[in-house]
Design a protein that fits this description.
Blueprint (H helix, E strand, L loop, with lengths): L3 E2 L2 E2 L2 E2 L2 H6 L7 E2 L8 H32 L11 H31 L5 H34 L2 H28 L35
Antiparallel strand pairs: 1-2, 3-4
Helix pairs in contact: 2-3, 2-4, 3-4, 4-5
Amino acid sequence: MSHEINGERAYAEPSDDERQNGHRGEAPRAVLYHRRETYAEKLDRNWAEILQELRILQTGLQLIAGFLLTLPFQNRFSSLDEYQRVLYLVMVITASTALSVVLMPLSVHRRLFRRQVKNRLVASGAWAAKAGLGLAALLIVGTASLIFDVVLGRWEGWVVGGCLAVLCSVMFLVVPAIVVRTPEPALLPEPESVRRGPDQPEDGVVIEAGTSPQDD
């Protein structure tokens, strides 16, 4: 029986344990769509998606970093107490580190260009996106806390910083975890042969009928 969703056919995908141990006694998990692509095409797509994530992250980091760098040239900056100055310097270091991490895949790409090891490039880009997102969360919390500390007071700055820390934890950790664990509609598997490219490795990709390669 054929099942289609928005023009895409649904196929069964084995679990990670089944791939590693070769046990296929249980019913495979259904996926909503299936991409017919080679290993190289999958790496190209993953790299393009990572670059888009890094662009979004870099734009936000640049805005906050630019704001922080202009503060010392303001007249009121000299009136900051020791705590506020230390917090400000910590935020400047955090912003500089975050931008360095986000720009790191560019250097890796130049170093690995035409070496046909894009899997390493994708892995480094994924790490940079995760690390940059964590540093961005620290930057959001610290910058807002500093602003409220200067405008309203120490206690207000701590309260706002704590609330934003909880918000960032929910948005960056809890929500993705909930989305991952959200069950998909029950769909019957349909046999399908997966196209294999000449550059596609033997391990890690299933080409048997009724299965599809894992789509990250």
